[in-house]
Amino acid sequence: MAKVKEHSLQVRNNIVKEYEAGKGYRKLSKQFNVPVSSVQSIIKKWKQQGAVSNKPRTGAPRKITPRACSKLVRSVKKNPRTTRKELVEEIASIGVSVTRQTVTNTLRRVGLRKYRARKVPLLKKKHLAARKKFATEMLNKEDNYFDKILWSDETKIELFGNNYNNMVWREPNSAYKQKNTVPTVKHGGGSIMIWGCFSSAGTGELHIIEGTMNSQKCYEILEN
Prior knowledge:
- By secondary structure, this protein is of the alpha+beta class.
- It has helices at residues 9-20, 25-32, 36-49, 66-78, 84-92, 100-109, 125-139, 215-223; strands at residues 113-116, 118-121, 151-158, 167-170, 181-184, 191-199, 202-203, 207-209.
- It has three domains: 9-49; 66-111; 119-223, no CATH class.
- The longest helix has 15 residues, at 125-139.
- It is elongated.
- This is Transposase.
- One of its GO terms (molecular function) is DNA binding.
């Protein structure tokens, strides 16, 4: 249920004051730009309780201290793969004892939730630099330059391999930040090689490659 906007104590007191002066609900609603139903509720509360201020709300106080909350946030931002068990033990070291659910609730209040880490290719610094250089050079090309290019690539898909559920604490829209991803490599367990291509005219067919992909096989695929 959405949280209802609460009118200030001053507005509520002024409504009661004008009501005592003889004004009706509709006039008060128009004067203070408050729904008629809200005016009725304020007056009803005043008649029953003799005041319009809110009583102290019930509910247990939060077990986690501001210091412990800050420590949790720093920990998961430094290492998003930190588990709830590790976080509970970490803040226990500063004398704060909480449950794993309290850890989850605390991090959610500051916009941090647990997500499955995205898998991305393992790239070294030289690979990142080369990709950036290539992308920068392509920005200066004319649009029709790409009409002459056929983009192709092959990938080796593992038939068997590790499939762990790597979870990370992160904010929305930060899935592909490096610390929130899991580097992947292609090896072991049996595999198949698939080749594909695309151009400005559309996508080509996928081909399963027997053995090692080389220039000769590429020519044969394009000719057929």
